[in-house]
Amino acid sequence: MMQQALIPVFALLCSMLAAAIIFTLPEERQRLRTVINLLAALIKVALVGVMTWGVLNERDYGLSYEILPGVSFVLQADALAMMFAGLSAVLWLLTTIYAVGYLEGSPNRSRFFGFFSLCVASTMGIALAGNLFTFFLFYEMLTLSTYPLVVHRGTDKALRAGRNYIMYTLSGGAALLLGIIWLQGLVGDISFQETGQLKDVDENLHLPLMLVFGLLVAGLGVKAALFPLHGWLPQAMVAPAPVSALLHAVAVVKAGAFGIVRVVYDLYGIEFATLLGVLEPLGWLAAFTIVYGSVRALSQSDLKRRLAYSTVSQVSYIVLGAAVFGPVGTVGGLVHLLHQGIMKITLFFCAGNYAETLGIHKVQELNGAGRRMPLTSAAFTLAAFGMIGAPPLAGFVTKWTLGSGALNVGMEWVVAVLLISSMLNAAYFLPVIHRLWFLSEYEWSYQRRWGRLETHSWLLWPPLVTASLTLLAGLFAVLPFSPLSWAELIAAREYLP
Amino acid sequence: MSNWLMAGLLFTPLALATVSLLLGFRQGRALSWLGMLLQLLVSVGLWWLVRHEGGFYYTLAGWDAPLGIELRVDGLVVTFLLLTTLVASGCGIHAGFYLEPDRPWQRYFWPLYWFLWAGLNTVWMGGDLFNLYVGLELITLSAVGLVALGGQAEALRAALRYLLAALLGSLAYLLGVALVYGQFGTLSLADVAGQVRVSEHALLMRPALVLMLVGLALKTALFPLHGWLPPAHGIAKSPVSALLSALVVKASFYIAARVWLEAGVAVASQWMAQLLGVLGAVAIIWGSWLALCQPRLKQVVAYSSVAQIGYLFLLFPLTFGVEASVSLHAQQGITLQVISHALAKAAMFLAAGNLILAVGSNRVEALAGVSHFLPFSLFSFGLAGVSLMGLPPSGGFAAKWMLLQASMASGQWWWIMVLAGGGLLSAAYVFRIYKASFLERDEQDHFYHPDRRLEVAAMLLALASLGVGVSGSQVLSVMAMPFEEVQ
């Protein structure tokens, strides 16, 4: 019994401990730092693996204690939590490897890896949080620990982006806090539970609950980069590539999207939320963001900014899935939490490789990079096709499920949105792929060589692994432990009578 | 046993102050290490005693009220005694290595330090209005002395201004006390509280209450009476600023809160409570805004104190005319705010002192590049900042949460806006400092590296302010320890 409370705590502590050790290490102890980083990441993957297995077998992991009068600190591992925890644990491992290679020889690495670990500890906390209060603790901790990563380079541009990031996220945090405190005033301290907790509330609480929902979504929407709260994200692209990869694929935007999913399913409950009528506006907002992000991505000439707008668009698939009533739509949204993560992190890894190896930042500089860096470009191409939604890749599974879920409940407009978005995705990704493979080589002013390999091996392996995951997640979608079947498990538990 | 503990808390600081007056800085320092250890033992001992046997009244030397010196020891007192031990020791240790022993007047630091500590202990335990006054004066005079310790003309000017403001405050308070004595013939707070509830002339207590509150608000630097604080806290030596911001202003607030909760609530009016709250709210906004505009690092921290003190005054509207449970939440929130602000602000001033020592300038822009030179101190500054912004997981957040809960439950939604807005504004000035220190410049100067022990003192206090956030219930449980009405 004891052990079951300890596992989630250890999963949290292992990266916090790693952060504490790394902060105190002198800058030049590079090897020791790498060992600690990787060790902590591996332990975390193992712990999350154990918990995932346990959750599948209906075991309860969790702990709860009163942190302040009237409100508890609750950790609990359920199927949805494990989805996010698994994503962050696995991608943390890969990003750590990548970051070690990426930052080789640059200053301030102790600080970087310290905050990096804190950042992952916060995502783990967000995943395992058992009530809104606990969620908020880690949500704000994530904000604080990502700030030093965004401004890592210390340039004026980075500092400006950091300031914007903080302004957006702290204001969002304030809205979220107001929502939480209001909800607490209405119904007390309630924990997340499958199928929701608010079904049986009094009729005259419906209006305040709608307003609370608005506040919560506004607060979470900042991190999830919902239109019009997305402005910080493209600017935050000045951060080093591993940070962009982690921020965009896992930590920050997913924390927001995950929070919305939690609120819809495990707090309000999908049926009650539908009854209140709050899901439809949310769905429209998500749909608009999907199209808007894609349109903006079209006109970006900077590769990372293009990817950033693509993120704005893609994360809203998750929100859209949450807004579509019915198990199939739910599956579509949830599965994208994982799919978007692995696809987008691949793209950012590749963008980082181009920048490090050939000094490429602009889209037109990619001309002919495919011949110079075939493996990286293959990974990029695979992930980009996944984003577009080409079968049999991960993105296709998402769009298919989401579309059929919407059709099941008669929301045909969702299908139209999906089609438009896919066309736009193709419109901004295909030219890039075309440039990579079919145009003659650009005159790169800067080239670095690493022996036989096209780039540093620590930079090369992570995108190759995530790109193959993109393929595997699509091909073996029906096998147990695939993202799709895990999402189906969650959906089955959410729609229990 | 209680005799020994009381003696330890009241007489040893006075004795240490007197003895260290005769010694040089270094001997005074060695003696003070012993004194801090003793204070730690005694306050933990008192905690243990109250936990097992409950709180008690203690009459000094057997003189009974209304003539004698009556002390009251309960959970809240123990909380503040422990807090004082923690913060004052942290600042004392920092000062021991921060001040230059060979400057002629620095040796007066230890006597003033211990007089201050004696005054603080007196105020926490004081059971009657006059004793509280004596403690307050002891604190004021030693604090003014500590500010003047800097020696420059500017420091003397600030100290003089502080002295005048504080004396004016004392005068108003004393006048109020005199009115109370004339009305009720007693100075014991418990007696006054008892009489106010039954007396039909209770409303005559009102002018006295107003006078006392105004005087104490002036000493606590509540907007618009805050003008003396930033110069004094900004110019003092860093460990002194830390002591002043963390503990000294809390002493006068503590008296105001006790007078209010025990006797004031019965006679005050809604507009008085709301007015105090509004002034607090303005202090939050205005203080944060000014903190954002300051070009010098220590002034930023000093104005931040003005803002943080504003939060304390939300106690008045949130405990007046509300249900007992709401009032309890508000009191708990304010207690947490006092504790976490004391820890965080002390940590922040100490860290700021280290940063200034390292870059050799008090200006915010001079911090460029310090992030990889002095990460440890900057990190302490950052952690303290988290608490001031009221972000989790910190004591500041716990306090804010309780206050939000109380505002929500009492339907006073306008304080919610203030709490949320104040948090964002404080984030603005804290992040301004981070931003300055993260800036990378090519022409990097060589920094001076301060003593490790200075950095550790700041870090421990900052960590303690976070610790309050994750153990709020435990911290509050000390305050709720039982009180036995047996003397």
TrEMBL record, chain B:
Family (UniProt): Belongs to the CPA3 antiporters (TC 2.A.63) subunit D family.
Q: What superkingdom does the record give?
A: Bacteria
Pfam families, alphabetically? Answer: Proton_antipo_M
Task: Report domain NADH:quinone oxidoreductase/Mrp antiporter transmembrane positions.
Answer: 127-420
- This protein's UniProt keywords: Cell membrane, Membrane, Transmembrane, Transmembrane helix
Tell me where in or outside the cell this protein is found. Answer: Cell membrane; Membrane
User: What name goes with this protein?
Assistant: Hydrogenase 4 subunit B
> Topology in the membrane?
Multi-pass membrane protein
Coiled-coil spans are: none
Query: InterPro entries recorded for this chain?
Result: CPA3_Na-H_Antiporter_D, NADH_UbQ_OxRdtase, ND/Mrp_TM
